[in-house]
Amino acid sequence: MLEISDLRKRFAGGPEAPEGKVALDGISFTVRPGEMYGFVGANGAGKTTTMRIVMGVLQADSGEVRWQGRPLGYDDRKRFGYMPEERGLYQKMKVAEQIEYFGRLQGLGTGEAKKAAADLIERLGLGERRNDAVQALSLGNQQRVQLAVALVHDPAVLVLDEPFSGLDPIAVDALAAVLQERCRGGVPVIFSSHQLELVERLCDSVGIVSAGRMVATGTVSELRAAESGTLRVVVRDATPGWADGLPGTVTIEGDRHILATTGADDQEILRRAMKAGHVEYFGAEQPSLTEIFKEAVA
């Protein structure tokens, strides 16, 4: 289990902002074994700073990161897989050589590194590019190589900063399948992303950060349950003005009247809708992660 507890970080200011900038203001969350955790927030919210502290690239002013119940140390971090925001590949090195090289840096023997690299090259769809220099690859394929570098030593934890950025849908599916496989093996995975639909599809739990503070965290279903659902009613050939006085908004699309409302008397709405015309749809709809995110950071 990876535990992030009350992390705080302030960056030094300059002449225009001598008080500095608060990057993290008490960030706390937990990523359990076999859990995929989506870490989302606007640019500058504190996601990358948090990940850098987890990996020891930055030091927190206060707070703690714990792994398996003890303070996270250097030897533990060596077993982590990290994909930084700024990609760090050798542009003139060939794909297979590069992945093998990083495997050896992580302590694998030559044979182990070669086998692990070959497996990842196939899994990530890089077979035809294995002997190409990184600089000859598209940004999406470079992204796949960067992920392979993070995975090559079979890490105990994965910390990935925007791993899906710039990938086409096929590459996203290939990468997601690899991450899900690692999760099934018990590896905690935390990744940041602006692609909220993807986070909603893949993640077991989600943390929403804004201005250095955690404003919402939990499973997607828990976050949805905490928000009021929207009652949606579709009435065909409705009597004009049937929804006058009801809370919410009515949209007219052809011969359909669509009412969206929250916090209303659903039985009264149903009675009026049935009297007004043919009710095609009547039901509560839970908010999407995008809607939850917008509400949380507003």
From TrEMBL:
Q: Which InterPro entries match?
A: AAA+_ATPase (IPR003593), ABC_transporter-like_ATP-bd (IPR003439), ABC_transporter-like_CS (IPR017871), ABC_transporter_ATP-binding (IPR050763), DrrA1/2-like_C (IPR025302), P-loop_NTPase (IPR027417)
| GO CC terms of this entry | plasma membrane
- Topologically, how does it sit relative to the membrane? Peripheral membrane protein
**Keywords, comma-separated and alphabetical:** Antibiotic resistance, ATP-binding, Nucleotide-binding, Transport
Q: Which Pfam families match?
A: ABC_tran, DrrA1-3_C
Domain (ABC transporter) spans: 2-236
Where does the protein end up? Cell membrane
Primary site of residence: membrane
Q: Which SUPFAM superfamilies match?
A: P-loop containing nucleoside triphosphate hydrolases
Q: Name one GO molecular function term.
A: ATP binding
Highest taxon, organism lineage: Bacteria
One example of a Gene Ontology biological process annotation: response to antibiotic
What family is this?
Answer: Belongs to the ABC transporter superfamily.
- Identify this protein by name: ABC-2 type transport system ATP-binding protein
